[in-house]
Amino acid sequence: MLTGPYEGPVNESRRVRGPRDRRAREPFEAETCKRNVRRSVLVALLVVLLAGCSSAPAPVEPTLSPTPSSVAPAQAGPPIDIGALRGRIVFSDETNDVWTMDADGTHVLKITSARAMEFDPTWSPDGTRIAYRHQSGDDQTTEIYVMNADGSRQRNLTRNHVPDWGPDWSPDGSSIVFNSAMGSTGWSGLFGYVMAPDGSDPQRLSIHYVEYPAWSPDGSRIAFMAQEPNASGSNPDYNVYVMNADGTGIERLTDAPGEDGWPAWSPDGSQIVFSSARDDCSISDALDCGSTGDIGPWQDAWIMNADGSNQRRLSSEFGQFFAWSPDGSAILVAGADLYLIRPDGTGLTPLPVEGVSHPLFPDWIS
Prior knowledge:
Distance between the termini: 24 Å
Structural class: mainly beta
CATH topology: Neuraminidase
Oligomer: single chain
Low-confidence stretches: 1-11, 17-69
């Protein structure tokens, strides 16, 4: 969620941002200019969030799955039929409040209105409840809350006065996985935890750094992003990992320089979409490399097989958070705006949301 020289912890507020511009060698277009003005506003709003974590504890030695990555050629294809989309989507307006809507963008409803920041929501499998991040001050005040799908009965699950965020519900509804600084020494890092949906019996999964965990559809594995030792600079080194649901069998799936993170499983568990900063101009000489022009790197949508193989870019549009359609035919991407794209990279289609300026952190159920 939210993440000048680098000193000490990687600032979490840097890690949710919108881009300002692409490299000047790209052709100038008026529409690009309009988008970049809006994206620079998003950077300014989100950078106020404070630091979330520091250098990682000594990680469990992972098994690397080395695979080449590639940039797929741009593919147009027919646009996605928004009117045919089914299900419900929960999301937040930046970090301000939690909203729900039908998958076709209708029946938009704000369901929280606290003075605190409330964002990063996730559905329970049956669609009756939503877990989310509640933050009344700096990252020390972050807690995992849960509420009914209509916004009623909001309650604090963690109550531990350390950073907690990144909730994701297990497919059977019996547990919530999240990252937390519980058990760390000062700002020594974030660990993966699971707890019951009522907040009871929190259990640490491992001593490996874990952030933004995501449960596989069959409940057997958890994907997550992890800060690497000595990560530094404006594009610190993060990679996508997977582990068994009990915290064992940790494997690293990505090995590109810069940030790889925010993984989301396809409904059949065969693929993982993730955000990557490997196309930022600070580390890429490609003609279509990107630059935010502000704090933090350019990030776009990539996809890979669940074992880390066949990594390829879906789109050069800025994108950081993802939700798959329940049938696996489309991916909802949140960056400067919401857009839909097929898993093969075709059909990029904007999804406007009436009354919400910057939808982020989507989750989609049937």
